[in-house]
Amino acid sequence: MHKQSILALSQALQKRELSSTELTQHYLNRISAATSLNTFISIDEKGALAAAASADKILKKGEGNALTGIPLAHKDIFCTKNMPTTCGSKMLADFHAPYDATIVRKLEEQGTVLLGKTNMDEFAMGSSNENSYFGPVKNPWNTNCVPGGSSGGSAAAVAAQLVPFATGSDTGGSIRQPAAFCGISGIKPTYGLASRFGMVAFASSLDQAGVFANSAEDLALILQSMAGFDKHDSTSIDKAIPDYTATLHVPFKPMRIGLPSCFFHAEVATDIQDAIRAAVKIFEQAGATIVELDLKLQSLWVPCYYVIACAEASSNLSRYDGLRFGYRTANANTLQELISRSRTEGFGLEVKRRILTGTHVLSSGYFDDYYVQAQKVRRMIQDELKQAFSEVDLILGPTTPSCAFKIGEKITDPTQRYLADIFTVAANLAGLPALSIPAGFSSGLPIGMQLMGDHFSETRLLRLAHYYQRCTTWHQTKPEDFQRGVL
Amino acid sequence: MTWQTVIGLEVHAQLKTNSKLFSGSATAYGASPNSQTSFIDAGLPGVLPVLNQKAVQMAIQFGLAINADINDFSFFERKNYFYPDLPKGYQISQFQRPIVGKGHLTITVNDQMKEVVIERAHLEEDAGKSLHEIPGYTGIDLNRAGTPLLEIVTTPCLFSASEAISYLKTLHQLLRFLDICDGNMQEGSFRCDVNLSLRPKGSEKLGTRTELKNLNSFRFIEKAINYEQRRHQDLLEMGQHVSQETRLYCPDTDTTQLMRSKENENDYRYFPDPDLLPIEITTKTLNDIKATMPELPAEIKARLRDKDNLTSDDIEFILSSPSVLRFYDDVRSHCKALPKTIVNWLKGTYTAALNDKGLSFEAPPVSSTDVACLLDRLTDNAITANIAKTIFATLMNGPQSIDELIAASGYKPQDSNQMEDMIRKIIETYPQQAADYRAGKEKLLSFFVGQVMKETKGQGDPAKINELLRKLLG
Fold first, then answer.
1. N or C: which end of chain A has fewer CB within 10 A?
2. ipTM more than 0.90?
3. Shortest CB distance from A364 goes to which of B39, B82, B267?
4. Cα–chain center distance at A240
5. Pairing state of beta strands A289-293 and A185-188?
6. pLDDT for A151-171, tens place per residue?
């Protein structure tokens, strides 16, 4: 059952060959058997089965749609009324949101079945899911390795086939990088396409909601329901959403694919470079023209990203003061102590590091040199990429410079960790859509390929990704195949 | 050494929108704590602000009224600091580019006109309230958190308490007549902070300023300024420095006390709020709003003075609140009485009756139509002033038909000639008193008035009677 695409599952459900209750129970059993991966923070068995029963009623009447009865998991950054929303933090370990995020509501309206909330780096800050108050998540391909982050729980859950799809959030690569590390497909849409209302903010101008699934085909189906204008989000774009699924199979006209030379420098693992070049050949055979790009500002992407992300985060996380909700210290005699101790005790190390960095770059005397400068550079980065998209239809490259590293490996050097985002942050800085799909393996660990397009080019990205997945089988390979020696 | 006091004023005016600046919560004053607090107001994880366009419109109306530059592009910034009544840990405000730029307001001080320069006016959300009445606890009420404020800042161009008060009263009136703020200082919808410094007269350089807060009435503002300028003067004349501080006015002691030193002021780390789009004002928007502008106090004053020939006292009364003006205009447009007569009635009889019952022109117990009708009857001499007053008193208890009340009074308007004949007869009846009056005994006039009133069974119009008696007695 768990090997099927969402489309196939949906058809089976609608034909009543399978019930949502059966399907849900199947996944719940798999989740119980895989607790060592630590992918879930909360599981709502009762709620899930109740939702499945409702879905079955609708399906019985023949009124189901593409997602009715399909189980999913939400990254624990999306507010849900029926389950805690922890953001992977002690600060919100017992927080029960009194409302549902718009994304949660939209997917529920489609008749999906929510199984639980997935583990994540605390407040979405991290690239390995080692920064969670609830413990690290393990990569299903090699449990000594990280699944990537910050949406590590969602990625690992989909890779281990504990759920057909799971939502994530992507601020600097937090969907694409774990998708690459876990050998699955993940998409971050254009900034403003999916509502941020109810998605706990890390860096407001960079955050975007997205999704993980087993194929571009599945991504298209889910994105259809997630995308759309929300009046509760002032940065939400009021634009008609195209039918992503309808255009997946349309043969594309010869495309110009941009390959930035900086994506193939010496620091990128050889296996990864080889896998990408093999992928490029497949597109060339389909008639694509390859254009080499010289993105001169690439070395500024990561510093620019971190200045802005930390600045916005330092402000977004000020509301966690122990006064109205969340963790409150038991040990305070003054207001000052109450606030500072709640935050000191409630936040993990990486969160504190970023809040301090962000406060610093916004401080009087540093504001112009850091924050203002970063914003100016951001505009230049966006202009350079927009210019590139006048020459090419999409930009292709490795999602990450290396495969999944070992748990605990890079934890002593934070700036080294930040460089893992080197290929992904550009999409967030410029608000561009990007996805990652499996493109091979290196020593048993998945390799991800990133496709990035101009604003609102999701249709094109998904179509190309789907084409690639018709020509290859990387996305169909699962951890158990590797473990069985199939690889 | 002669010192010059230099004052700059910051007014926070709460805008009269139905909902808050960034959420749909109600803004009514006096609701039970946290009953008008949404998830957005409480700064819960994941919530986002959505701008209330009506607040923008009101800010623009203010800008137009003070002939200010309206910035075609302005944006919101976050002012970051920690306090329990500030749920998000930052206030959404405007810093670098406010919606309203430089403008001016003309005030009158001691019959002289002065142009006060307003540096800027910007939109920001209010914080909640801390309540200290619960023993051992501080209560946080977030009803006020998120209500829209227009912060209006002058340049340091005011040089005395009377200039400051005149500016504030003029501003207060303008905001009320624009219908963008109800100006209730006790409820906190019109709050003023004073920035004051002293410098040697003739000097161009500004002295160190202190900021005064907790000024809940015009009276307190005046007293606080007087105290503070003396305090500065005392320090400077002793050769000491004035510290840049924030001070609270204490009405009980009529002094200002240190609140916090501005030296250790928070670095607010302002940066543009990434959750909100910039405000873009097109020429069309400006023109649309211009078309909706109500009559401004300056224009109203001019027509009351030039067309209605009213005195400045009368005008002050009519402009004491938009509801008084509305009432006056309504009566005026429905009746033929002189404007002066109308004002006298409203200022005198009507106001006295309102005060008696603790009511106001906001919800007038006697309608403008009824007052107009009554004054028409008076003008036509169908009734006397006394009868009108009696009828008015009756109407205060509930609406009734004025003509029926007039009929019930049994008054028959006195024919002028008939009245003259009657008075002549009375004068002839009392020749001695008439002679004494003519000889200088003014007091005897009331004797005659009494006689005439007796004759008319108390229904005579005393004013008319007086006039005729004086005429006929010679």
1. C
2. yes
3. B267
4. 23
5. unpaired
6. 999 999 999 999 999 999 999
